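Bug #77: duplicate submission created two jobs. Keeping one. Sequence:
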Amino acid sequence: MKKVCLIMAVVMLGFVSLVSAQKPFAGTIKMHSHIEGTEDPNITSQGESDYSIQIFGNYTKTVVSQEGLGVINITNGDAKNAVTILDIMGMGKYYIEVSAEKLQETQKNVKYDYNKTGEKKNIAGYDCEKVVVTQTDMETDESVTFVVYISSALNTGDNINFMETPGLAGYPLRTEVKRDIEGTEITIVTEATEIIPSKKIKAVDFMMPADAQDIHTNPDLMKMLGMGSEEDED
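Kept job's structure:
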């Protein structure tokens, strides 16, 4: 009987360890962006920025504040929707939502190809693999290609990349996007500088503020932001 109890205890310990190991990542990732390919300070200064991303499973939240304007971007990979909240000094909070239906309509004519190169890179202490992403508009055959370095070690949610790279497992700790500026090809690089796991981050932290209003209730603000078209109002 004691032997059976011991075996059961070992099995239960293994089960608890497995559940703990599979618990979705919760924490903050500090990111830094810069521009490569030119030394022109007028260009490089535009690409320098630091920000943080909070993550809880399939949820992400990015907060950026400057000159009286706060912008909060929240994505929900479980529901496959996203919301941007504008906190404007003197005007209050307004939100712009991208519903699952609208996102599905946008993505239905886009083909996503992921070329896993096998090239490895350690970023902020986590092993990553280089993946070349190609997004092709099936109606025009126009393509956009960029590079991400994906880490599966964070154990983020399976649908965390539903907006930019749907179906790609892992989390991008570095992205490289090429752009042409007045004949000069530059690369916008965004890379994680620090990853801070935290048990204090909960799903409730990703809820929309209760005092945020739908931006469609303020036509003047929509016009000011260039959102006055019928397409934007749908």
